[in-house]
Amino acid sequence: STHSASFHSEISLSFSTDKGTTWSDYYPVVKSQPEQQRDYRNQCLGQSQDGHLILVYGSIPVGDPLTPQPMFAMRSSDDGSTYSPPTPISPPTNTWLNPHGQMRRLPNGTLILNARGGYLPEAYQQNPNLPERISCLYHSSDNGNTWHMLSELGNDASETGILPINNDHWIGYVRHNNRPN
Fold first, then answer.
1. Cα distances (Å, whole numbers) of residue 75 to 49, 93, 104
2. CA distance to 31, 43, 91, 111, per residue, from 151 (Å)
3. Of 71, 65, 66, 63, which is closest to residue 120 (Cα–Cα)?
4. For the chain, percent helix, then strand, then coil, each to nearest 5?
5. Three-state DSSP class for residue 76
6. pTM of this structure
7. Spatial separation of the C-alpha atoms in residues 45 and 65, rounded to whole Å
8. Facing residues of 63 across strands?
9. Tens of pLDDT along 21-50?
10. Which of 17, 52, 133, 153 could be cross-linked to 158 through a Cys-Cys bond (beta carbons 3.0 to 4.6 Å apart)?
11. Which residues of the chain have pLDDT under 70?
C-alpha cells in the first residue's frame, strides 16, 4: 500500500512594540490542514489607509504546482489579533501567481503589490513563444477589500520590487531568469 506523507504549511506573524528591538512569539495566521495538501507561501503584508492590516498569500497544491490556484487576501481590523476569512484573487487565465515583495500604499491610499509566477502548459499549447515567467502588478482602491490586476510587468519578469515615489512615478527592479536584471 502507498503511504501519503502528511504536509503542514503555515504563515505566521510576529510583532514588535519597541521599534524592532524585541519581537513577540510568532503565531500562525494561515494554517493548512493535512488533508488539504496545500503549501501556503509568499506572503505580502501591508496596512490600508483605514489602519487595517492586509495579508495576501499564495497557495500551491503539494505535488501539483501547475494547477491554477488563486492568491488569497485577509484583513485584520484589530492589529493582527484576528483576520477575516480569505478572499480569492484570481490570476490571469492559464497562469499561476504568488505575491512577491512588499505591499505598498500610494499617497492616495491605493494599495499595490507584485505577483510573480508562470504560464500553465495550456498557455504554451496556444502560444509556444510565451516567456518562462510572468510578473503582474495588482492594486486595491478600497483598502484591500478587492484586488485587480493593473498591468503585466516586463517580458519574462520575475520577483519585481516596486517603490512608488508619488502617484505618477515609481522605481522598479526586475529579476530575469536568463538575462541581466
1. 12, 26, 15
2. 31, 20, 12, 14
3. 66
4. 5, 45, 50
5. strand
6. 0.86
7. 23
8. none
9. 999 998 889 887 767 777 888 899 999 999
10. 133
11. 1-7, 34, 65-68, 181
